Amino acid sequence: MAGAVDQAAFVEWLQRIGDNALILGHRVSEWCGHAPVLEEDIALANQALDLIGQCQLWLGLAAEVEGRGRTADQLAYLRDAVEFRNLLLVERPNGDFGQTLMRQFLFDAFHIELLRALKSSADPRVAEIAAKAEKEVAYHLERSADLVVRLGDGTAESHARMEKALKSQWPYTGEMFLDDAVDAAMAQAGIAPLPSSLRPAWERTVSEVLAEATLAHPGEAFSHKGGKRGVHTEHLGFVLAEMQFLQRAYPGAVW
Amino acid sequence: MSSQWPLWEIFIRGQHGLNHRHVGSLHAPDAEMAIRNARDVYTRRNEGVSIWVVPSNAITASSPSEKGPLFEPSNAKVYRHPTFFDIPEEVGHM
Amino acid sequence: MYAQLVKSEGAKPREEMTPEEIAFQERIDRGEKIEPKEWMPEGYRKTLIRQIGQHAHSEIVGQLPEGNWITRAPTLERKAILLAKVQDEAGHGLYLYSAAETLGVSRDELLEKLHSGNMKYSSIFNYPTLNWADIGAVGWLVDGAAIMNQVPLQRTSYGPYSRAMIRICKEESFHQRQGYDIMMKMAAGTPEQKAMAQDALNRFWYPALMMFGPSDKDSVHSAQSMAWKIKINTNDELRQKFVDQTVPQAKYLGLSIPDESLAWNEEKGGWDFSEPDWSEFFAVIAGNGPCNEERLGARVKAWEDGAWFRDGLMAHAEKAEARRRAARVAAE
Lengths: 255, 94, 332
What we know:
The structure holds three protein chains of three kinds. By secondary structure, chain B is α+β, with helices and mostly antiparallel strands.
């Protein structure tokens, strides 16, 4: 089985999942010290910590499979934007707290389905990371879904903000379910599901939550894409400029 | 001016089958969120397996001035403590 | 410390005390803990609210200088450690606000006083973190100074405050170590890294010494707090202890403390050192530190921007409760 795997595609795929965790973790961590209430500050930090931990595991495995002696840190800190493989959704700026929450919810609902499927990956290393991450992400989803419901069905202002957030994040959700050659190779090797196969379950979760939140389902919409093959929004460059500053300014230093 | 989230008292049962123990308090709009916040605030280091939350204003506390009458009588019931009884060494651990 | 300028009265002489006050003082002298709702002198309650409140504010404002570097931490592991640490500060703020709330003041009231400038936070957090070694220096020096004050406060007379300090001390044990660990890496690193480490020490040394508050000879107000055991050691005692602990640590790093007068004093068995510039301290406390505006501005913005979120959740909780009640009524 493992012998039949296209290594380059595997590395590419591992970077996709690892970069999603890295960039979303980065965005969430930007809230540290600035959240609307102390309890939320603490909860968000937990979430960012989970994501950074997951990114270390995925990128660590990517480096291992790649076999060129690189580390997770080198992948995180020494690739340029064009080499990053995360979804556009996760690199979008935080906006107000509603935007952040909606982005999180739409991603969590996808992330959990992906991880559930990965628990039966043909590659035991993938299955193991997925099993650990799934527990964390189940909690992320519980939280984000519940907060979307509460704020959608809260005050007129919170409803309006969540509606606006949904509208602006929605066009970035389609990319999660696009299949390409890398996905096909992974599915064929039994390593990962085809992204399109995750859509029905995601749709169910999202429809249920939006209905309970009294938010109108946006329906079919135009879909932005490009992150999975390295064509990003302008925002990622700034994320990396900040994140990679020390490693770039002082090459070779040990921290 | 917005209204403040109510205060909740948090009780956590640790890993080893002990009783729930009061660990502190926090604010939350309702019980469900109080449990979630408690998970994030008070179990950051794997401290617990079960969480109880109670609205702070639902707790009735013994009056401090009654401390004497409430607790001192039990001081006299020394037989409630195992060290009250001398068990011969030959009997073994009890 | 985190409550550098909490004013209380001079200790009341026994002959001026009421019988209640005498009984109260005797309880404290016996080492008993005072618990919420028990009788306490109004001055005790007020001083505690100010002190615990200032301490709590310091924790949450203290998230900001370190939070600055979370997105720029140089490795994934450093990022995770720093995030966990800053998260702990938020937790500590929360524990302390909770302790203050047992004295009959709400967290929102305390925050309102912080935001309006009527309550202070520690001067140290008005200094900027300019390079990565500052994150090391904050952990090593700032947390080191804080711990020095907090360890004795575990024995403070007010039960909820003492319990909060016990929890905080337990959790903080890794904070200072992670800071020193960063300093060790930097000091043993490239010449640029070592220069950053020295620069950080140069900038944080005196502000760290200021954390203990003005010299005992200038702060006559601590007598009452010490009698009440809400202050355990004097400012100068703690400052001396801190210097004695830190000098060899700096030496181990190969860094020099920016004080030409630093000298071992055999007689007192401790280091002689220069006082910080107290006019700078008072300027920072008065709002003229390098970052006062940013720090307080960031907290006020977070609070104001978050109002719709807090209100939305409260409104939902009330609606949901009303629906539950209506359902119960319908069922009956």
